[in-house]
Amino acid sequence: MSRATDRAARHAAATGSGPTRDDAAGRARFPGAKSAFGLLGEVLVIGVLIAVVSVPIITLPAALAAGVRHLRRFLTADDSSLGWFWRDVRSALLGGTAIGAASVVVALVLVLDIDLAGSGALPGGPLIAVVGWAGLAALALALFTASGLWSPESGWLAALKAVPGALRADPAGAAYLLATAGFAGVVTWQLFPLVIPALGCIALAIVAVPERPRRGHGEADVEIERGDPRA
């Protein structure tokens, strides 16, 4: 909201010529975010749930997709009971475990390349290390974006196909997601238990980044069919 619009809203509320500030808040796009403390608590709760579901590692995509949908329901003041989270987990596991297994294999290969590059055992080590880190960043970005696009109706294949278009439509958003991944990696490296709030922050970023106000974008350039968040 611009300053002029905000001033007009305050004037309308004060003079009675328009809706009160509370009424305007009630029609907010994300009424679930009205309470910062409540949102923080929900992020921590979903971080715990994602961590629990992700214990086998290969289930991380399913856990992230379910967590993203849960936070999306919470922010829009939809039914965000945990029963819907577990329903999404069950639906996302079918293809999500295959994506998770493939991601683990690719990540291990890239980490091995980075380790060998640092040891000096490979010629052109610095270049190989750069390629390895870039590959890990691309893998994280693709995983986060696909998790945000997944829905029980469309499935993982449609989500993966939509990833390139979503990234092209919002390169700045991709940078924000990469920054979130870097932040999560750093805090987890410093103190492993912080992986729980880090996972919750990742899920929140996946929801919030595509919805942020963007100059010159009245509507999204690319629309992704997500279906009913409770389905």
Tell me about this structure.
- Residues 1-26 are annotated as: Disordered.
- Keywords: Membrane, Transmembrane, Transmembrane helix.
- The chain crosses the membrane at residues 37-64, 92-114, 126-150, 187-209.
- This is DUF624 domain-containing protein.
- It comes from Agromyces salentinus.
- Helices cover 73% and strands 0% of the residues.
- It is mostly helical.
- It has 2 domains: 1-34, no CATH class; 36-211, no CATH class.
Please tally the β strands and state the result. Answer: 0
Instruction: Categorize the overall geometry.
Output: globular
In round numbers, the mean pLDDT is 83
Structural class of the helices, strands and pairings? mainly alpha
Main β-sheet description: none
Helix percent band: over 70%
Euclidean distance between termini CA atoms: 32 Å
Query: Total domains, how many?
Result: 2
Measured by DSSP, the beta-strand proportion falls in under 5%
Q: Uncertain segments of ≥5 residues (pLDDT<50)?
A: 13-26, 218-231
What is the helix tally? 9
Q: What is the rounded Rg?
A: 20 Å
Give the SSE order as H and E letters: HHHHHHHHH
